[in-house]
Amino acid sequence: AGCGKEPSSYMWIYILLGNMLRGIGETPITPLGISYLDDFAKEENVPVYVACLHTIAMMGPMFGFLLGSLCAKLYVDIGFVDSGSITITPQDSRWVGAWWLGFLIAGTTNFLSAIPFCFLPKSLKKPEGANNDKKKNFAMFCRVLSSNYNHASFKCPFLSDFYTSMKKVLSNRMYFTLLCCSLLQFSSFIGFLTYKPKYMEQQYGQSTSKSNFLIGITSLPPVGIGIFLGGLIMKKYKMGIIGATKFSFTMSFVAYAISFLHFFVGCDNYAVAGMTVSYE
Known about the structure:
Layout: H1 11-26, H2 29-40, H3 46-72, H4 99-114, H5 133-150, H6 157-170, H7 173-204, H8 208-218, H9 220-237, H10 241-259
């Protein structure tokens, strides 16, 4: 009778809330960080600085996969059970790694790395060669916003400004096209990172630990190196918007053309009784 009802766990709620807080804390880094670099750096140096920012951001998942590989080698109840009493290995399908350990290590690292931000000055002196026209443009933007406040048909000024800004952003054809391209690229990249480890486990008989290790070593570092080299090339040739667009289109086209080679590489499916072959 006690086995009739499976025990339920609400741990997913803690993971959901933790990821929500993590997203709230991480999101401002990219838009505010890029704006900060754009305001306080020389125009020709901005591509390199932005490339460094994105390169470091790509190194995070790489170390995450390596940490996941290490944690997957440890049994899920490490510290609570005697390791000598465990009779299965990471290659066994019943093995469950210490997935929770990575959250504790990464959370502690995030907390410690956030402390230096408290000591940054509230404002910095703009160096010579920086774009000083942005201050003038910002003042003009504030005047436009104040006029929108007076002529707003909404009762809430925030909603009026949000609607106006959203309309301007979405009506910009270049930005809207870039947004659509980014959505397609990240959707394919996330699917690649999500399912390739499982493919390696099923097709090549690798453990979860080794699959994460190989993904972290082979997939993410080339992306980070490519982003950094792209920033150096843009700085060297002083590309404008049109030049950067042509450069991005050329590199993306070559990358997608090479991706077609995946269709010629593969393995035969495993013989699964009742699915791919009969039970006899």
